Amino acid sequence: METYEKILVLNSEFEAGLLEEVLTDRKIPHGIVTLDDSALGGIVEMENGWGYVEAPERYRAKIVQIYEEITKK
Predict the structure, then answer these.
(1) Residue 41 predicted with pLDDT over 80
(2) pLDDT at 63 exceeding the cut of 90
(3) How confident is the model at residue 49 (pLDDT cuts 50, 70, 90)?
(4) CATH no. for residue 57?
(5) How many domains, the chain?
(6) Is residue 73 very low, low, confident or very high in pLDDT (cuts 50, 70, 90)?
(7) DSSP code at position 62
(8) Which of 5, 16, 27, 40 lies most in the core, judged by the most C-beta atoms within 10 Å?
């Protein structure tokens, strides 16, 4: 089993859902980790983002490229 590493920080649940859909469609192994801190009223999210995506290191460049494509403004 490959080791998963933190690849990039996600800013919202919307970003996470969209990225997860694309990664799943492309069969890229990944995990979405939320930093949900309802007990602290969102303080962790304000400082560290909504959450992050983790995956094997060899997928880093592809995941970052996909993320940049789906978050273009």
Answers:
(1) no
(2) yes
(3) confident
(4) 3.30.70
(5) 1
(6) low
(7) H
(8) 16
Return the sign of the alpha-carbon dihedral for residues 62, 9, 17, 57. Answer: positive
Residue type for position 2: E
On the question of pLDDT at 21 being above 80, the answer is: yes
What's the domain range around 22?
4-70
Tell me, rounded to whole angstroms, the distance of Cα 44 from its chain centroid.
Answer: 16
Decide if 19 contacts 53 (C-beta within 8 A). Answer: yes
Residue with tokens 């949900």: 36
DSSP string, 2-60: PPEEEEEEE--HHHHHHHHHHHHHTT---EEEE---GGGTTHHHHHH-SEEEEEEGGGH
